[in-house]
Amino acid sequence: MTKCINICLSKTLKKIRPLRLKEERNCEYVNFYRFQFKRLVTFLMSCCIIFSTFSYASEHCQTEAPPAVLTKDIALNRLLQCNLEIIDSRRFIIANEANLTQAGETQNPNLSIGVGNINPKLGIGAGSYFDKTIDTSVRYEQLIERGNKRNLRVKSAQGIVSASKQDVLETERQQSIVLLSAMVDVAASNERINLLSQMVDLYKETLRANSIRLENGDLSPLDAERQRIDAHRAQIDLHQAQSDAKVAQLTLVTLLDWGHQTDALTVDSAILDVEPIEAQQFDLASRTDVKAAKLRIEAASQQLELARAQLKSDITAGVQYDHWPTSGNNATGTGDTISFTLGFPLTVNNHYEGEIAIATSNYDAAKEALVHIEANAKSEWQRMNADMGNAQENLQLLQKELLPHAEDVARTVELGYAKGALGLLDLLEARRILRQTRLDTLSARASLARSIFTRNQSISANNIN
């Protein structure tokens, strides 16, 4: 960034150096360009800082490789730096800050230079320019705003800048929820692959044992074929789980802008065991979208006041210098004179009803938007608590009731089938029930983790953690 600023300054100084030679001849000319030079340097430094910030983020995101195991903290830190949705939302802050600078600027003055009263028949006389019978005028005009218009513009622009910053925090919150849900999906997919791989390995051992029993006549060909079909079904489930894992990894690397490095991405399985943040009551005022809506109401209110302030006319103040010397051919010259003027529009045709009506409509729309956002926030909070409660109940039922019973039944049937007390259909049914119960338990863990992350990120809206 420093190198960029030095280059910008050096190039600008080369263009400004010739002005120093004119300083002794025309101080006002040089002072004008000095002012323009300061504005140019400020603009170039801002551009360099903005460009360096985004270029650094882009280069950092492209060169950094995924860690061996992706944890929650690493993922959230990279999300803030590299997520494209968050980066795009931050650009609106820069644009709104530029609007704020523009809103606070004073109107530029107007300088007019003219000549008049030139008589082609009598001529302009001899001597230097200021002795010639030419009426030379120099006029300077400045618009003076009334009705506190400039402060109203600044306050409105400040509200929009503050609202855009809250929008960035809201985007970060939403993207963090999407990220953590994607991490849960990846971790759950990997766990599902492990469970199904164990089941496939069990079927492989069973098929190897069946081939021996089939040769010895201890197993009928029909029963062997049934077990082979069930083993193929488990293999298909494993392939589907591997495919789902690829999709989940692709979603995750897209959120973190890691290109297509899906094979190098592994999520820490501890992501499935998150604890909820304690919060008895929902603090509506802490929501970033609610804050942004309130700030937009304030900005719309300032815009309404600004529209009403148009009824107080601005004044254009002017001062004029005239030089019209007398000569032998011009006895009516006035010499050097100074005049002052004040100009203001007459509000006889346009009373700014349209501007006031539009500003009033925008103000009412901003208030209605706040009502809708607050209602949605309350509804979302209730839904998040309901989802988390249901997920906790389902997981508790599976872990304490269904899964232990399914494991006991499977062990009993496996032992009974090995001793010949139970048939093949009982064995296959027990294995399918155990497999499905384990997968349901894993899905319940993932659902609970997603609901807890959604709720936690909504509670800590201003601090992604």
TrEMBL record:
<dbReference type="Pfam" id="PF02321">
    <property type="entry name" value="OEP"/>
</dbReference>
<dbReference type="InterPro" id="IPR003423">
    <property type="entry name" value="OMP_efflux"/>
</dbReference>
<dbReference type="GO" id="GO:0015562">
    <property type="term" value="F:efflux transmembrane transporter activity"/>
</dbReference>
<dbReference type="InterPro" id="IPR010131">
    <property type="entry name" value="MdtP/NodT-like"/>
</dbReference>
<protein>
    <submittedName>
        <fullName>Outer membrane efflux protein</fullName>
    </submittedName>
</protein>
<comment type="similarity">
    <text>Belongs to the outer membrane factor (OMF) (TC 1.B.17) family.</text>
</comment>
